[in-house]
Amino acid sequence: MTDDPSNGPSSGLSGTVEGLLESEGLAAAARTLFGERLAIATAFARLLAGSAVERGLIGPREASRVWERHLLNCASVTELIGQGESVIDVGSGAGLPGLVVAITRPDLTVTLVEPLQRRVTWLTEAVEELGLGTTVSVHPGRAEGASAELAPADVVTARAVAPLDRLAGWCLPLVRPGGVLLALKGESVDQEVAAAGPALRELGASSWDVRLCGVGVLPSPTRVVRVVAGSSPLNSSRGGGHRPPTRSRHSARRSRRD
Ligand SMILES: C[S@@+](CC[C@H](N)C(=O)[O-])C[C@H]1O[C@@H](n2cnc3c(N)ncnc32)[C@H](O)[C@@H]1O
């Protein structure tokens, strides 16, 4: 990367993360999702394509697809998060989706849970460098057992951490009653949800469904399993049900409390 920090987001210089955004036709989506926070998102894109690759947090091939695959994919999930809510991001890795959520929505407080020290160090540096210290904290450790140390959150997010049944077992204890787990998933989301049904019931989830985020904004919308935590996490008598995917229009400031 040969980024010149003086180049604005629309400078269109090839070889920069800004140039990448324009050459891939993603500039409009980025402006819609990040708004006035686009400069911070661009600074994070530089970190991802630079030090995160150099230090092995993401693979070298990711440098050329940081926007669509990482920043835009993760930012779209904020349409499912209400104003001022608390968020725990489990298995943050290089801050995905947690740091992107915090960049997109300064009204949220975000805790990044990550067990690998190398990643914790990078995340801590990134939070500092991006000036996000007032809303973001890094919690070193695994999700299992973190409920003893963290206050229950309105929302727990996770991407590419574990299959849904195992993920729910780790994450639902971190969600307040009636709060939600938002699990970003790939194309096989429906099979994964079907397989996880018994575990979700056992964990006391009150409902779950699949949402599509970034519809009409992203080239391919983000698939998110939205699991609502029951009032009693271990009450298996509260049955859940899988509903077909629902379109969810982008509205970064919309409140959706259950
Ligand atoms: C494949 S990476 C995904 C990172 C990031 N969420 C993303 O989408 O790029 C999985 C991450 O989950 C973390 N992880 C694995 N098991 C975990 C656990 N039990 N609790 C919390 N994090 C965990 C790993 O250290 C790693 O950073």
Explain the overall architecture.
This protein has two domains: 17-69, no CATH class; 76-248, Vaccinia Virus protein VP39 (Rossmann fold, 3-Layer(aba) Sandwich), CATH 3.40.50. It is 33% helix and 21% strand. The protein has helices at 17-23, 27-34, 38-54, 66-75, 98-104, 117-129, 164-171, 189-202, and strands at 86-90, 109-114, 136-140, 153-159, 175-185, 207-213, 222-228, 242-248. α4 (66-75) crosses α5 and α7 (164-171) packs across α8 (189-202). The protein has an eight-stranded mixed β-sheet with strand order 3-2-1-4-5-7-6-8, sandwiched between helices. It is α/β, with parallel strands linked by helices. Mean pLDDT is 87; it is low at 1-14 and 233-258. It is globular, with a radius of gyration of 18 Å. Bound molecules: S-adenosylmethionine. S-adenosylmethionine is lined by residues 90-94, 96, 113-116, 119, 142-144, 159-161, 170.
Attached small molecules? S-adenosylmethionine
The spatial strand order of the largest sheet comes to 3-2-1-4-5-7-6-8
Give a short account of the largest sheet. 8 strands, mixed
CATH topology of the largest domain: Rossmann fold
Topology, number of strands: 8
Figure out the total of helices.
8
Structural class: alpha/beta
Q: How many angstroms separate the termini?
A: 44 Å
The average pLDDT is 87
> What count of domains describes the coordinates?
2
Give helix and strand order, one letter per element, not per position: HHHHEHEHEEHEHEEE
Strand content: 15-25%
Quaternary organisation: single chain
Spans of at least 5 consecutive residues with low confidence: 1-14, 233-258
Radius of gyration from the alpha-carbon trace, in angstroms: 18 Å
Q: What proportion of the residues is helical, as a percent range?
A: 25-40%
Shape: globular
CATH superfamily of the largest domain: Vaccinia Virus protein VP39
